[in-house]
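Renewal narrative, Specific Aim 1. Our central claim is that a sequence can be written position by position from structural information alone. The example that follows is taken directly from our test logs and has not been curated for this report. It begins with the structure tokens describing the chain, in the order in which they were read.
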């Protein structure tokens, strides 16, 4: 299964906002750089807010791009994976920006951070935080970028050891290149797991309520798809020693954590799009969750 996406249209919609317009151009360069590089394309699976915006026309857009890495993490064998990714990305970013006609832009990997500390013995879910600096040529920001000090940064998060069960290809309409991405089934499975995990990690996941509700209003899932969502979620949860049950989303602690800072989502939405009511969104996703074939 594949899906066509038109990044050019997505960029054009932000033309009235110069900062957002430039940022989206850098996202286009990044996505194509990954698509053009066999090693990166084979291992990087797009997810998160950028996927929601590009593939499903969500108006929620954050300042980072999230991926899961397919190849299982082996600590000793992957000690230098950050350097390999940095070199691959820098080579591709430079080539792709020229191929796409962005001759007035410069961008490169400014830093890569291993999270958490990869020297830990028990490292279950490592990640990389990559900061790609960008600027227009012949500007002060371009000079800062030469020193790896640009304040204009696109953050790329890569998660390792994530179970990727349901994926498909996104076809980039301008270049006909493809990248791998989560399907709606995978997105919902992952986000239900993350919501339930809130009470164990102490993190608030208000964006997951918004995203699941958004997808449920876009797609109708049949019995087989509901079964896949449940099975995927249980598998993802078990890998983290979490064991959901049919009434998990009725846990007031989960709901309260998801509701915290709900109104801050306004900062991630287009001004023309009103933030929906939290209670309505949560009720919608809870009813769907409880309708999954638990028995």
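The sequence written for that structure reads:
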């Amino acid at each position: 299964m594949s899906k066509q996406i038109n990044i050019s249209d997505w960029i054009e919609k932000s033309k009235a906002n110069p900062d957002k317009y430039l940022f989206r151009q850098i996202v286009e360069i990044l996505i194509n750089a990954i698509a053009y590089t066999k090693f990166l394309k084979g291992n990087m699976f797009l997810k998160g807010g950028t996927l929601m915006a590009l593939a499903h026309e969500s108006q929620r857009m954050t300042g980072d791009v999230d991926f899961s890495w397919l190849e299982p993490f082996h600590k000793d064998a992957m000690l230098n994976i950050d350097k390999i990714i940095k070199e691959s990305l820098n080579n591709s970013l430079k080539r792709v920006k020229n191929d796409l006609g962005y001759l007035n832009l410069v961008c490169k990997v400014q830093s890569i951070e291993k999270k958490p500390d990869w020297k830990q013995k028990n490292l279950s879910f490592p990640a990389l935080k990559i900061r790609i600096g960008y600027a227009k040529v012949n500007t002060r920001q371009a000079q800062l970028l030469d020193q790896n000090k640009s304040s204009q940064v696109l953050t790329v998060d890569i998660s390792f050891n994530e179970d990727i069960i349901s994926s498909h290809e996104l076809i980039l309409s301008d270049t006909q290149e493809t990248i791998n991405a989560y399907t709606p089934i995978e997105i919902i499975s992952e986000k239900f797991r993350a919501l339930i995990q809130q009470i164990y990690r102490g993190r608030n996941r208000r964006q997951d309520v918004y995203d699941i509700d958004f997808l449920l209003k876009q797609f109708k899932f049949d019995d087989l798809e509901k079964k896949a969502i449940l099975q995927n979620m249980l598998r993802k949860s078990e890998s983290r020693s979490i064991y959901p049950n049919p009434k998990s989303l009725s846990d007031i602690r989960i709901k309260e954590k998801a509701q915290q800072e709900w109104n801050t989502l306004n900062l991630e939405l287009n001004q023309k799009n009103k933030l929906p009511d939290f209670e309505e969104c949560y009720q919608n996703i809870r009813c769907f969750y409880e309708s999954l074939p638990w028995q």
